[in-house]
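Attaching the record inline, Q. Sequence:
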Amino acid sequence: MKDLTKRTTQEVLEHHIKYLHAGDLEGTLLDYADNAILVNMGGPKEGLDEIRAFFKDSIANCLPAETTYEDVTTYVHKEVAYIIWKADSPFCTIPYGTDTFIVKDGKIVWQSFAGIIDWKK
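Structure, as predicted:
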C-alpha cells in the first residue's frame, strides 16, 4: 500500500469518496488522522472512535452502498477540499450536501458537513 502520509489533498478526497460511496467503513477511516475532528449538524466528533461510530451509523442508516450520488462541485486548494453533492438512498434524499476538509500529511485532520436531509418514511 502507498505511504498514506505522502498523499495529496486530491488523492485523499478521491479515496474518501470512493470508499464512503462503497460503504467501506475501514477504508473510509484510513483517511482520518487519529486526532481528527468532524463537525456536523449533530455536533463535533473527535478522534477515530467517535468518527468510526458516526460513519458506522451513517452507512447503516442513511447512506448505504446502494446510494446514488451526484458530485456537483469540487474545489481543491493546497490543504483544503470543498465539495457540494446530492444523494438518494433507501433511507433519505439529500438534495444539498457540502463538506470541507483540511488535509495534513495525507490525512483528514478536520472536516465539516452540512446538508438538507429529507428522511423517507
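The CA atoms of residues 86 and 96 lie 5 Å apart. The first helix runs from residue 9 to 21.

More tomorrow.
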